[in-house]
Amino acid sequence: MNKSNIVEANISANGTGRVGHYLRTVSFDRFYRVWSVVHGAIIIALSALAEFSSFRPVALGLLGGWFLLALGGIFVVARAIHPDGSGPALPNILTTSRLVCAILFLGLLLVATWGANLLVTARGSAGWFLVLGLLVVEATDFFDGRIARRLNAGAFGAIWDMENDVVYVVALTIALRQIHGLGLFVLLIGLMRPLYVLFWRYESVPADPPRIYRLFAKTVTALMMTILVLAMIPSLDPSVRTVGVASILALQVISFGWDLTLQRRGAAPAA
Q: Where are the domains of the chain?
């Protein structure tokens, strides 16, 4: 048996070995890089179609369908080729609740395009039930990471958490735009990461980022999720809602700008 046959036999016999682990990681990283660009481009295109065309119902339906297809696809691929698989079930289920919420939100807005009364209801006292439900979903973002760390989940859990956050925030910002009439700037909050990935092609976090950056990025994400939910409160003063959401956009710009600086420094050749 020649050397290449021995290597192939080792990979076949022990897919979790170092060679198999490396090949699976490279394969998933390549897939995730392409997936991130395609996913971001489709989110941007469908969000723009929902906002600027007369095909809003179609765009909202397609966006919800794409969320399900895209995240279902990456989950299946992770189970097949990611070296750590898809990770433990419990934290993944908690994380997936944000995907389900995003799809339900878009379904609500889709139905509302045929009857304005539903939007009026969401602005009224019934909107408190919506906020309460969102706070429950928000709590999953607090618990899933902690449970995953206790269960020694693999690296895919962080990707799954981030991508579910993205679709959840996209749906929230579209809802804030349509239910409470916030300006176009609110959509930029949901589209910030898709735009970032599409134009700069950095789909993962910087390598070995400083501790202060990690703390800042986590704080911005937590504030963003919380303020977007609180902005759905029906009785909230419109000016307070606008200032709160605008402050999140400003913090996002700083966070992504910092991320881009670290990414470019990491990519620069050593002197």
A: 16-267
